[in-house]
Amino acid sequence: MILDEVAATQQIGFPILTILTFLPIIGAVAIWLFQKDEDLIRKSALAVAGLELFISVLLMWNFTPNSAQIQFSERADWIPAIGVGYHMGVDGINVLFIPLTAFLIFLIMVYSWDTERNLLKPYLMALLGLEGTIVGVFASLDLILFFFFWELMLVPSYFLIKLWGTGPNRQYAALKYVLYTLTGSVLMLVGMVLLNLNYHAAAVASHTEPLYSFDFIDLLNVPVPPEKQALIFFLMFFGFAFKAPVFPFHTWLPTALVEGPIVMSVLLAGVKLGTFGFIRFTIPLLPEASKDWFWLMAGLGLVAIIYGALIALVQTDFRRLLAYSSISHLGFVMLGLFALNFQGLQGSLLQMINLGFSTAGLFFMAGFLYNRTGSAELSAYGGLARHVPLLATFMLVLGLASIGLPGTNGFIGEFLILLGAFRAHWALAAIGVLGVILGAAYFLWYYERAFFGPMTHEPKRPLHDLRPREWGIAVALCVMVLWIGLYPAPFLNMINGSVQALADRVQQGSVVQAVKAGKHP
Hints:
Blueprint: E1 5-7, H1 8-11, H2 16-33, H3 38-61, E2 70-79, E3 84-90, H4 97-111, H5 120-139, H6 143-152, H7 154-164, H8 170-206, H9 216-220, H10 226-243, H11 252-259, H12 262-270, H13 273-285, H14 287-292, H15 294-313, H16 318-337, H17 342-355, H18 358-373, H19 389-402, H20 409-424, H21 426-452, H22 468-486, H23 489-508, H24 510-516
Helix pairs in contact: 2-3, 2-5, 3-4, 3-5, 4-5, 4-12, 5-6, 5-7, 6-8, 7-8, 8-10, 8-11, 10-13, 11-12, 11-16, 12-18, 15-16, 15-21, 16-17, 16-18, 16-20, 16-21, 17-20, 17-23, 18-19, 18-22, 19-21, 19-22, 20-21, 20-22
């Protein structure tokens, strides 16, 4: 997996990834300087989010598809004595996550426009700060820079859940989320240090410079001895598994999604940071260990698929149902990732993007329902389609995408994942298909009771259908769901080059590719 780089100044003329990372953070600081003019604060936050979305689309527009190159690369010294540098870049693995993040944050700003909130200024600052750190996570190619943004994003996340959550246990949910993530992060950091020391040993043996490096490109060219790979693999695994979360480390997710604000639920369910870590770092840096522990990882994925779907099937709280459906969907992503073939990796990567539209969209719909009924419980619903037919229609489209109906984005992702799983072993696909059936069962059963079932009681006040602002959010999400479902080629072309390079590395092994690159263990 020998990766060439194209500098941002050569490709687009300016450091676009640095701008995308720090523009929201600078915007948050600027908003802090404003006085109590709430209208100006709202407009400024929306303008920053809109500019971020425009620049991220520009990034995607100028990206060269069907290429495994690192594009828009930016490098600078940071702490050279220990091999830490400022290195950013995108390839087919991470290029779609940055526009997805900007898209969701922009919709969140629109969603929050008319909402009366305590502490409006810090709320919008926290959202912009969170956007900047998430983009930093996706754009970083130095492991310590990645870790810096990975930890920094916990600060706005904690306050968003604690201060603006809707549940009575929101403080507990915020603390649980942070503690789980920190526990995994400590172990992940140890794994990163071991990768650095492994690079150091190889550099000393071959008399090359630098002696230390946390740079992803450098680490790719120095294979890890098999006896060390399993240890580093599991240290990295725990860091990403807690964040994803992967079964059985999932217990913080339902609590955070139910107790926290809708906007945080949209981001936690729609932006797959943990599983991104697996495909960005764990699998390419530790391909032999990934193959050695294939059955364990695939098994965890299958258990999550069935477990999450069965628990979702009995939920009466819509947000809790979506939380357990997210666990089931993450099981599909894990299954595809550790099938370790082109179709599985391709499907998982695309499905991570898909969930940012379908699952996040369903959480937006849950927010619309909560704003009208004051509840997410099924007992508050019944016959809603008569009162809010437009909301019911958009929710059905997003729900059908979530369960993988042909013509929607969910079908493309799940089909490729199951194809990759079948190529790895037929039994994996046979069990995985059960998750598709159960997914259809839990969503359609809940939808039928909530929107077409008998009314439990008459609404205390008239239920208004989607307003123009809400209608715009729903249309934007459904357009993306149908675009990827009906014409996925542009998106697949963007990821295919890097996915093929990763699949080749897994099949050939890191030692063979290091020898081809002129490096030696």
